[in-house]
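Here is the promised in-class demo. Please do not try to memorize the tokens; focus on the logic of going from shape to residues.
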């Protein structure tokens, strides 16, 4: 159980690094708090996860965070219709959750009431996996560039092709070159602004 969301806990590779400068991407982003010390400008996945955890502990958030929890239902309940919509006594939200156990099974349903709910689903939840014609005949490594699925030790002296041009494509160009690739090829429909 780690604070960091799916993008950093599950999707990111051990070699993943922040592509936005740390000065605008950290948890103490407030006028009253300086940027964290001990982290580089582009920290790694593991350094960011440690930062997220340390700040959550320092600010007393961990007892109030439920990790590995599935939200089953959110219901809007009107308690006093005659009150103005902004009054906290007018309405509440009833939320049903289930803790996801290590076995993948779900625990008993829990119910809680809240005055507001913030929902941050992110955009890296269901990556597109394609199978290309002739993959079975290809003699090299084929792997998805996230979830720690690719063995970068195999690219030394080679010229790997990276399909796509999202953040993980840019990351994999850097990582392949850091692991000794002679060059990398990007195959994409259109260029993004974040050029490697």
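The designed amino acids, position by position:
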């Amino acid at each position: 159980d780690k604070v960091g969301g799916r993008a950093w806990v599950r999707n990111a590779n051990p070699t993943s690094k922040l592509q936005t400068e740390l000065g605008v991407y950290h948890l103490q982003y407030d006028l009253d708090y300086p940027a964290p010390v001990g982290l580089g400008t582009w920290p790694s996945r593991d350094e960011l996860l440690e930062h997220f955890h340390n700040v959550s502990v320092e600010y007393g958030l961990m007892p109030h965070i439920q990790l590995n929890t599935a939200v089953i239902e959110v219901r809007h309940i009107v308690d006093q219709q005659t009150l103005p919509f902004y009054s906290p006594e007018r309405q509440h939200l009833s939320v049903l959750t289930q803790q996801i156990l290590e076995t993948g099974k779900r625990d008993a349903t829990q119910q809680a009431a809240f005055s507001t709910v913030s929902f941050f689903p992110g955009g890296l939840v269901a990556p597109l996996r394609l199978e290309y014609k002739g993959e079975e005949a290809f003699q090299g490594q084929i792997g998805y560039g996230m979830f720690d699925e690719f063995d970068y030790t195999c690219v030394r002296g080679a010229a790997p092709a990276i399909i796509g041009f999202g953040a993980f494509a840019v990351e994999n160009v850097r990582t392949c070159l850091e692991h000794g690739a002679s060059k990398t090829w990007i195959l994409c429909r259109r260029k993004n602004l974040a050029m490697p």
